[in-house]
Specification:
Blueprint (H helix, E strand, L loop, with lengths): L1 H16 L13 H7 E4 L2 E4 L7 H14 L1 H9 L25 E2 L2 E2 H22 L4 E5 L6 H10 L7 E5 L4 H8 L7 E6 L6 H18 L1 H4 L3 E5 L2 H6 L7 E3 L16 H7 L1 H20 L6 H15 L4 E6 L7 H13 L17 E4 L10 H6 L6 E8 L5 H20 L3 H10 L4 H11 L7 E8 L2 H22 L10 H13 L11 H13 L3
Parallel strand pairs: 5-6, 5-7, 7-8, 8-9, 10-11, 10-12, 12-13
Antiparallel strand pairs: 1-2, 2-13, 3-4
Helix pairs in contact: 1-3, 3-13, 4-19, 6-11, 6-14, 11-12, 12-19, 13-19, 14-19, 17-18
Bound molecules: 6-O-phosphono-beta-D-fructofuranose.
Length: 536
């Protein structure tokens, strides 16, 4: 079996060594290839034709997926097996949006607990919306307890929806300083969102905001404004959250996959229960595709295979996410955590060093803004950066001309990355402008575009809760496939621990008059300089 896997990798590598392996333009006329690389999953149309996946390469990658048992691993996840081996946990975010009775974690009925919590959340939303006492909801959380719900609320909130949502994540007091001025404690509901309820930044902010509630309302009343979203029910009680205002979830929900759980309550409160339910339903639709589509039609798998080709075979170590929709402004940030915290791994499940690069750096901004900041590098930089371009066919505003411009720009970026611009074209353009031969010769190299730069276009009809749920779940499943292909645990995050521990040691050393402990000379000197600058 291991030999089969290595042979499959070798076959892909052999194709990658073929001259012109990264070329895309020569492949574009192949209609049969286009049919294989243009896929619909639910409402998402994915066009992977602007990549250098030839039919042969795709076959070799699919053979690799077969050897690696990606779809069998998917089924093990769905069965609730403890596939997060370093933490001994199942991985069941699909249960959060699945039907009753569908998922088990060991002998536990995962779906029953999910639906009980959803019922409680729905009843809570109905009460809050019915009372009309609260106008604002503040979600205090960080990482997965912030990025997913914040991204979704920003994408889905429309004028007239029940409440305004605010997201307090950074321990930087400026964040709360800026937020609190617009808020009235009497009209504000505060959600403390933390899977562990121990995250230092979240707890520091939770104390600040609880003090603000108590100062404005008195201690007895403040409790009624506090809600906790957590797996740590002991700690939520100790913090003073009334029992009926605690919404739990289980440890088989990873933080970066938790926006579908109680962690999503801010979305339901701000946008309404129907919107949150539609988000879950959208994700479920993508789950159904992922769980049932054969490998060659399975969109998350195909996107993962394209990533393997780019990262491991062509040596493209980054990827850009470019949503052409302002409302998806936090989508790249959410994907950064989903992808980089999952796939930033350097050892296999068995603890051995990986033999190929794993997770790429993911970054992004909405288009068209991205075009005026970093797209230069994608067009003319030294290393290609594959781009995911998300297009929304229909806007929710009436400014049709703006929307045509937006769509045209998204299409144009993908087209420009693909086709590039050769010397003949550039020279002719400069000659037509009447430039002399010396000026043309001097400028020509600067104005060439190499082309053959990959992109994947994802097209959805509208941006609504259903399509957003599908999009996010698509990337979650892509991450799963990559974890299986690279044989790494995509569901732990030990790499975040050391910095947390060291910060814990440093906090008391930054108190006035405190002496630094044992550090490297750079850190020791910086501590001393901070004390000096703070007059301590
Ligand atoms: O530090 C990383 C992390 O553990 C993420 O995985 C998680 O989403 C985030 O911190 C917040 O954790 P919690 O929800 O437990 O506060």
């Amino acid at each position: 079996m291991a030999d089969g896997i290595e042979a499959a990798w070798d076959r892909v590598a052999e194709l990658a060594r073929t001259p012109g392996a990264g070329a895309i333009r020569p492949l574009m006329a192949d209609a049969a290839r286009a049919a294989r690389l243009t896929r619909r999953a639910g409402d998402v149309l994915a066009d992977l034709t602007k990549t250098s996946l030839s039919a042969e390469v795709l076959d070799a990658l699919l053979a690799l997926a077969g050897e690696r048992g990606v779809l069998a691993a998917r089924d093990a996840m769905a069965r609730g097996e403890a596939i997060n081996t370093t933490e001994g946990r199942a991985v069941l975010h699909m249960a959060l949006r699945g039907p009753r009775g569908a998922f088990k974690a060991g002998s536990e009925d995962a779906s029953a607990e999910v639906h009980d919590t959803l019922d409680a959340m729905r009843a809570f939303c109905a009460r809050v919306h019915g009372e009309q006492r609260f106008t604002d909801v503040v979600n205090i959380g960080i990482g997965g307890s912030d990025l997913g719900p914040q991204m979704a609320a920003r994408a889905l909130w429309r004028a007239g929806m029940p409440m305004r949502a605010h997201y307090l994540s950074n321990v930087d007091g400026h964040a709360w300083e800026a937020m609190r001025h617009g808020l009235d404690p009497a009209r504000t509901l505060v959600l403390v969102a933390s899977k562990t309820f121990t995250t230092a930044e979240t707890m520091a902010n939770a104390h600040l905001v609880r003090d603000w509630l108590r100062a404005g309302l008195g201690e007895a009343e403040a409790g009624a404004h506090l809600v906790a979203l957590s797996t740590n029910l002991k700690a939520t009680a100790a913090f003073g959250v009334p029992e009926g205002q605690v919404f739990g979830f289980k440890d088989w929900v990873g933080g970066r996959f938790s926006m579908w759980s109680a962690i999503g309550l801010s979305v339901a409160l701000a946008c309404g229960w129907e919107v949150f339910q539609a988000l879950l339903d959208g994700a479920r639709r993508m789950d159904e595709h992922f769980l049932s589509a054969p490998a060659e039609e399975n969109l998350p798998l195909l996107m993962a295979l394209a990533e393997v080709w780019h990262v491991d075979m062509l040596g493209y170590p980054t990827r850009a996410v470019l949503p052409y929709d302002e409302r998806l402004g936090r989508f790249p940030a959410h994907l950064q955590q989903v992808e980089m915290e999952s796939l930033g791994k350097r050892v296999t499940l068995g603890g051995l060093p990986v033999s190929r690069p794993t997770g790429p750096v993911v970054f992004g901004e909405p288009g068209t803004n991205a075009q005026h900041s970093f797209m230069q590098l994608l067009h003319q930089g030294t290393t290609p950066v594959p781009a995911d371009i998300v297009l929304v066919a229909n806007p929710d505003h009436g400014f049709e001309e703006n929307h045509r411009q937006l769509l045209a720009n998204g299409l144009a970026q993908a087209e420009a990355l693909l086709r590039g611009r050769d010397a003949t074209e550039v020279r002719e353009e400069m000659e037509a402008k009447g430039m002399d031969a010396a000026a043309i010769a001097a400028l020509l190299p600067h104005r060439l575009f190499p082309g053959d730069r990959p992109s994947t276009t994802l097209l959805i009809p509208h941006l609504d809760a259903g399509t957003l749920g599908q999009l996010v779940a698509l990337y979650e499943h892509k991450v799963f496939c990559l974890g299986a292909l690279w044989n790494v645990n995509a569901f732990d995050q030990w790499g975040v621990e050391l910095g947390k521990q060291l910060a814990g040691v440093l906090v008391p050393e930054l108190a006035p008059g405190a002496k630094p402990g044992a550090h490297d000379p750079s850190t020791t000197a910086l501590i001393a300089e901070i004390h000096r600058l703070r007059g301590e």
